[in-house]
Amino acid sequence: MDMSVARRPEIFIFITGVVMGLTLFGYFFDISEVQNAVQTFQTWATGIGWFALALGFLTAARVHLNHIRRRTPGRWYFSAWLFILTFIVTVAGLISQSTGFYKWSFTWVYTPLGATLYATTGFYIFSAAYRAFRARNLESSILLIAGILVMLGNCTVGEVIWNQIPAINEWLQLNGETPAMRALLFTAAFGLILFGIRVLMGAEKRFLGVVEGGGG
Amino acid sequence: MGEKSIWVKLGELDRRVLYWTLFILLAVPFLYPLGLPVSISETTLTLYNYIETLGPDDVAVVGIQAGVSAWPEVLPGLVAVTKHLVSRGVKIIFWGFYTDVDMTMNAIKARVPQLKWANEQVGSGDYKYGVDWVYIGLLAGGEAAVAQLADDLHSVIKADKFGTPADQIPLLQKVHNAADIALVVTSDTGDYGDYYIRQWAVRYKTKVAEVGIAMNYSTFIPYYNAGLAVGALKGVRGGAEYERLIGSLGEGTQRMDALNVSHLLTIFAVLLANICYFMTRGKKGGGG
């Protein structure tokens, strides 16, 4: 068999269309044959998810191996360091995940680094708020006032200043914010539906790596 | 060329001054705790009230989709809700879609001493592993996996974290799909709350609650208002509120002081920056 036939995008578009169509159909209609097929697809997708983790590692490994091989200035030693650490943590994890270096590295390296990274954003937000949050016009003034009220409502000192702050904050979040978030959610959902329709009709090929007018 | 006015100088304040000010002021509540009162939000109260209706015949899922970096915000809420579930005798299945889920599970277990591993001595009021609670570990597959868990739990979960087959775990024998689960508590920094809403709440009417970072509260509220979610905790404040509701003050309440200082300082800085802006607006060399 000519292998180029098996690589034709039409085959992948057809498979995607069948899987997508059945999954969509199964979400709304309770027909046992369709449900069984959808469940099989979902089980496969879960398995593929595990492969994606391995694929992610292999892709990262390829990128960093290239940096090491080419001695990319300013980068290759970080790539080498990544491989060294990956090797050490993998070996430590295979020996024991609840004791020794593996546990030590997670408890005293990974956890504090994660917390530090997250906490650091607070300083950037603080600095950015000082520089950018200006009441330049009516809209930005409303945003500024609403932002201050929500911030006061999110911390307990707001209710010490005025006992109605929590009520205002709750109203702003439950009623003021919901329409905007709903609009965003619906827009994204409709966009996803349109994307799905394009995939089903074979008009969307970018997920296969095929770029119209360009070399795939 | 004249010297810059005080307003211009303040408006152009070096960011290192801002960083140091925040850093120093954040240390104050550690030395002198403020201990301000916490009022209870509606979405926290509805979750609490719903768990109050559950009992030992019910099974809850705690889905951990937040990493270690989000602990300061989500862990107090996760711990408080877990304590409440334990106090009600609700059976709990823990799993997670975040690679460091083991760390979070260990952190919860360290703070809820009733949860006992299989090799630990079980006393009165303790949760026996496999019977009262179980830990599945890391799952993969995104929304497809969440959907499949709802349809057929056992097609995804073949064993627990320690490799014990699912058919040898009494608690897992009680549940087959989302209809057997009374509550899903999803702890997020991303989109998993949406997945549980779409695949569990809409299709199986399973109650879903969010215990995520404060930013996720905004995206989750439309679901709550639509009646698809039973409640939501707003980051560390939500955790502090829940601690108060269950009468077990902990890390959430402690961290509220830091939240108070940082928020107040940010508000003060924004107001100061705006005063500088208005004082120098239209003037040559002014900020803005």
Which descriptors would you attach to this protein?
heterodimer; A: about 220 residues; mainly alpha; 8 helices; about 80% helix; about 0% strand; extended; B: about 290 residues; alpha/beta; Rossmann fold; 2 domains; 6-stranded parallel β-sheet; 6 strands
Describe this structure as you would to a colleague.
The complex is a heterodimer of chains A (216) and B (288). Helix content of chain A is 81%, strand content 0%. In chain A, α4 packs across α5. Chain A is extended and about 75 Å long. Chain A has 216 residues and is mainly α. Chain A has a domain at 135-199. Chain A contains eight helices and no strands. By secondary structure, chain B is α/β, with parallel strands linked by helices. Chain B folds into two domains: 6-32 and 256-280; 42-249, 3-Layer(aba) Sandwich (Rossmann fold). Helix content of chain B is 51%, strand content 12%. Chain B contains twelve helices and six strands. Chain B has helices at 6-11, 15-31, 42-52, 71-88, 101-111, 142-151, 153-156, 170-173, 192-204, 214-225, 235-246, 251-280; strands spanning 59-65, 91-96, 133-138, 183-188, 207-212, 231-234. Chain B has a six-stranded parallel β-sheet with strand order 3-2-1-4-5-6, with helices on both faces. In chain B, α5 links the parallel β2 (91-96) and β3. Chain B is elongated. The model of chain B has no long low-confidence stretch (mean pLDDT 91). At the A-B interface, α3, α5, α6, α7 and α8 of A face α2, α6, α10, α11 and α12 of B.
